[in-house]
Amino acid sequence: MTNLSIAAESAEPSRRRIARRRHPSPAPWLLPLILVLGVFYLYPLLDVFRFAFTNISLVGGEETYTLQTIVNTLSKPELLQILWVTFVFTGSSVVAQQMLGLFIAQVVVRSESRGLVGSTIVRTTALIAWVVPGIAGGIIWKMLFNEAPFGGLNSLLRMMGSPPVQWLSDPDMVMWSVVISNVWRGTAFSMVVMYAAIKAIDPELYEAAEMDGANAWHRLRYITLPQLRAAILVNMILITIQTLNTFDAIISLTGGGPGRATEVLSLYTFNVVFRNYDLAAGSVLSILMLVISLSLALVYARFLPKGEPA
Which CATH number fits domain 77-302: 1.10.10.10, 3.40.50.150, 3.90.1140.10, 1.10.3720.10? Predict the structure, then answer.
């Protein structure tokens, strides 16, 4: 073995040590995060799956493993109605929040480009609704929807000569009252997402369209909406999951009534656990909500624009 080869072999470990110092392993930095996620997120999730295969209750008693809890929970006759109410509430809220969020964002961007003072007022007003807690928002809308003579909306209708509306007692009307309150609260998030996405669109696209004679509708259809495709889909995923988990505003506004006209799946799960004290059935319903949320998120994600090939 020559002196040159010996020197090369002795220099190889030092080069490896230098490379390790320049590119350290991320494991020491990721380990605390993995531990925190495991303790606070993964362990409770696994415990929920374990509870679903038991008969555990909040009032105590002997805990045994059984599949009967899953069968009984998923075969309850009211579950189909609750799933339909959840579908109507979630679908209506998501569509309305997307459309109103895009409209308000367009108004704010247009007013800012023209230097109008009112743009700040519009943006701030929308954000105020977003920071109001769900319980407080439900109480506010309960006063507005109050069917007594002093009810906010019915007072306005009476002043205009219109008959009062049974906002919260009519089974055919109460769902739309709940949707209105949820859209009022959640539109601000969609507005922020759409506002940021619109501001990121290259202004030269609009200038070129104007030079080609495109009107406002054409610019919206062929420039704004295609450029906002990713933002719309991501926003749809987020607000769908958020709406599926909404129950605080509903419980303070209608309590799920009249009857079960506004009892969505999240509120039904809350009632099963904290009013019926059935932790096992609540775990099954929580897993059902998780499956629905993940399924919808995967469906939305399939329509996200793919990256350009390398």
Answer: 1.10.3720.10
